[in-house]
Structure prediction request, 382 residues.
Amino acid sequence: MTETAIYLDYAASAPLRPEAREAMLSFLDGRWGNPSSIHRFGREARAALEDARARLARVIGASPAEIVFTRAGTEADDLAILGRARMVPGAPVAVSAIEHKAVLASAHAAEAEGAPLVLLPVDGDGVVRMDAVDAALERKLAVVSVMWANNETGALQPVAEIAARCRAAGAVFHSDAVQALGKVPVRVDEVPADLVAFSAHKLGGPKGIGALFVRRGTQLRPLLFGGGQERGLRPGTEDVAGAAGFAAAAEAAEAVREAEMARIAALRDRLEEGLRARVPGLAVNAAGAPRLPTVSNVSVPGADPEALLVSLDLQGIAVSSGSACASGAVEPSHVLTAMEIPAALAGPSVRFSLGWGTTDAEIDRVLDVFPAIAERVRSTNG
Ligand code: PLP
Prediction:
């Protein structure tokens, strides 16, 4: 594999932060105890796990008892959706049409188990429609799920408002904040969400660990059965090193968030202005929505999306087409389709996602090479 020189796919996975690596090392090289053991090795592991829980809780304004460590963001979403659907059998599940597959697929699984599925539509900028939320809330729902920020377009959703309306209607509200944590404030002491999902590797922690915030009093059925760890909601011996790395990454991201995001937003704006000026017909998707500073999703009409990605890769520039999890699929993304972007524009779309390592020089390089590549893959597609 050729070395990738310019990584603009932070939303797919971010490099491990040094703080996370440092926090994990002592558990990988030693300190192997099981947190459930009562001897000193176990107590040491338990203390480290509870320390990680308390630190992650502090970052989001929760109390430690409200944090359930899970295996990845996907499992946190599954636990929220299916765990609620199984708690209230037969009650409908309402999720936005632009959710990540982790939510959408578990909503479909809940549907197969008898929970009617309500898909909440979005507007042309990829923001969920509040009238649809209100209409859904007229029924007694098992759960409402609207993500904090969309992974493909970066569009921020009005979660504070939706959470408040769900609270008023007596409905449990879940938000997938996998892409939001570390980039925008995610505070459960300010937003009355009941369930919020996180994943460590999107903010510089290790892959394979996530967390679900479960507000005190929110009732959920577990999806796994075993030794009763994580208050029975996620049994299985805990990943102590992963939890330590997750907490360290979340703290590190939060400590520099405001300054870093201002810097990255400026880079993102320069990227978009430059591309618009240089590539005829290029459209920035969700441009009218409040967005994560780190994500830019552009459509290049007439271009073959795969050829675009491969040509960029050959120039050492790593980006995604639509959602990384859907790479390999040729049909346009369900997110852009839900925004009613025509297939001719939704198909040839590219997602740039920036992060703490992104530099001015990297954006200059993209602006240098992208227009010619776009031109070439357009003509070969014609
Ligand atoms: N939710 C969103 C919005 C995501 O972007 C992702 C990852 O792409 C996930 C959930 C799944 O997280 P994980 O990769 O930790 O399973």
Summary: The first strand starts at residue 6 and ends at 7.
